Amino acid sequence: MKPTRFPEGVHRAGSKKVRAALALALLVPAPSLGVLAGMVALPDHPVGRALFALSKVWLFALPAVWLLAVERGRPTLSPPRRGGWLAGLASGLAMSFAILAAYAALGERMIPRDVFAARLAAVGLADWRMYLAGAIYWVLVNSVLEEYVWRWFCTEQWRQLMRPWAAVTASALCFTLHHVLALSVFFPPVAVAACSTGVFAGGVAWSWLYVRYGSVWPGYLSHAIVDVAVFGTGAALLFG
Questions:
Q1: The pLDDT of residue 14
Q2: By C-alpha distance, which of 187, 171, 156, 177 is closest to 71?
Q3: pLDDT digits (tens, 9 = 90+) for 112-164
Q4: What value does the CA radius of gyration of the chain take, rounded to a whole number of Å?
């Protein structure tokens, strides 16, 4: 019998799917493993801190290495050629309003002030100067890095495996997973559930912005606005 021969396009499509699945398998568990090592199993141990740092390096280096070495692509600054700034602004403001409304309605009933203060003190963020420095880093740096990892790289890999809306949802779930673990270190279960739902909603919105406009920057604008609201409510809870 002669071996079955498939059209070259079928081989290329299958190869892309295999590569996408491998990329996701290498990427998605990394931050959760880092949180488990550095914040749950070995929170005050040098090995735990080293594993947490290594997971961060892996998370941010893998997409760039994958693009250059596996996909043979070229990095770009993801210019927003199709706009999306207004959608990013509107979504960021809408989610921030929901966060502020939830805090106004529930406040310390959902997150006790003493528990929150003790958890932040344990990681060195109870001092207002360190808290402010952390907020600036998260808004200006970490949000960009998360858009690059979860909206560009993760969403693009899922799009090789499924339809765009399914890829948006899958990417948001991957983005939420390690946040659930990290939030559980700081907050009681009810707050973890509420905050995780918010993280997932944000992930869906920002992945949709990426798919719709072909750029990470509208999502970053929305993400940064939400982070300002998050750190603002945290400051109100912590410092009064």
A1: 67
A2: 156
A3: 788 788 888 877 788 889 999 999 999 999 999 999 999 999 999 999 999 99
A4: 20
- Three-state DSSP class for residue 153: helix
DSSP letter for 187, please: S
- Rounded distance between C-alpha atoms, residue 183 and residue 200, angstroms: 13
- Note whether 100 and 233 are within 8 A (CB): yes
Indicate if the alpha-carbon torsion angle 153, 155, 158, 162 is positive or negative.
negative
Q: How far is CA 214 from the centre of its chain?
A: 18
Q: What is the DSSP string of 111-133?
A: S-HHHHHHHHHHTT--SHHHHHH
Contact 143, 152 (CB under 8 A): no
**pTM summary value:** 0.91
Please say whether the beta carbons of 96 and 221 come within 8 A: no
Residue 119 exposed, middle or buried by CB count within 10 Å (0-12, 13-18, 19+):
middle
Could you give the CA distance from residue 158 to residue 164 in angstroms, rounded to a whole number?
8
Q: Where are the domains of the chain?
A: 8-239
